[in-house]
Design goal:
Elements: H1 8-14, H2 33-44, H3 51-57, H4 70-80, H5 94-100, H6 102-109, H7 116-124, H8 135-147
Helix pairs in contact: 5-6, 6-7
C-alpha cells in the first residue's frame, strides 16, 4: 500500500481540466498512453505477486539481470503486465478457493489440476474468480470500472470520532 497519493488539483491539471472543472463531474477524458501506463504501473507495483511462481512461469533470466527481490515485482509492473504475462498473488488461499468454487474442487479431485492454485492460474483468473475472500470486493469493483457500469457515488457521512475513554472528572 502507498503512503502518499497525488494532489487532486495537480492531477486535474495533468488531465487537461480547465479552471472550475472537477474530475468528479467530468464524464469523458482523453488521456495519453504514457500517462495511463504510468498510472497503471503505480497500481501494479502495489500488487502482492508470488515472485517464485512468476519466475517459474516465465523464463526471464535472459531478459533481466535480477537484482534485489523487488525487481521481480518491478518487472511485472513495468514490463510483464504490458507484455501479457500473468502474476499470481502470493495471498492465494487454497482452502477458500476450493470451498468457494466447487468446479475447481472437482477438477482437482479428478486430477485435471494438481491444486486450486494450478486451476486458478490456468482458468480461474481468466474466468474472474477471486484468489481469496478479501479480493472478492476488489474484483467486483474492477469489473464495474472496466465495463463502464460504476454506480453513482454514495455520499459518506463521517461521524466525529468518539473518545475511547471517559474524561477525567
Amino acid at each position: 500500500m502507498y503512503d502518499v497519493y497525488p494532489d487532486l488539483e495537480r492531477l486535474e491539471r495533468r488531465l487537461g481540466l480547465k479552471d472550475g472543472e472537477r474530475l468528479e463531474t467530468v464524464e469523458r477524458l482523453e488521456v495519453d498512453g504514457a500517462f495511463l501506463r504510468g498510472v497503471l504501473e503505480m497500481i501494479l507495483s502495489d500488487v502482492a505477486i508470488d515472485e517464485r511462481a512468476y519466475l517459474r512461469d516465465y523464463d526471464l533470466k535472459a531478459e533481466v539481470d535480477w537484482g534485489p527481490a523487488d525487481s521481480i515485482a518491478a518487472h511485472f509492473a513495468g514490463t510483464g503486465y504490458f507484455a501479457g504475462l500473468v502474476a499470481v498473488t502470493r495471498n492465494f488461499d487454497e482452502y477458500w478457493y476450493l470451498e468457494t468454487y466447487p468446479e475447481a474442487r472437482l477438477a482437482v479431485a479428478e486430477r485435471r489440476y494438481q491444486s486450486g492454485l494450478d486451476h486458478y492460474r490456468a482458468e480461474g483468473r481468466r474466468q474472474g474468480r477471486a484468489p481469496n475472500a478479501a479480493a472478492v470486493a476488489t474484483m467486483a469493483r474492477w469489473r464495474q470500472v472496466l465495463s463502464g457500469t460504476v454506480p453513482d457515488r454514495v455520499p459518506i457521512d463521517i461521524a466525529p470520532q468518539q473518545p475511547t475513554t471517559e474524561p477525567e472528572k
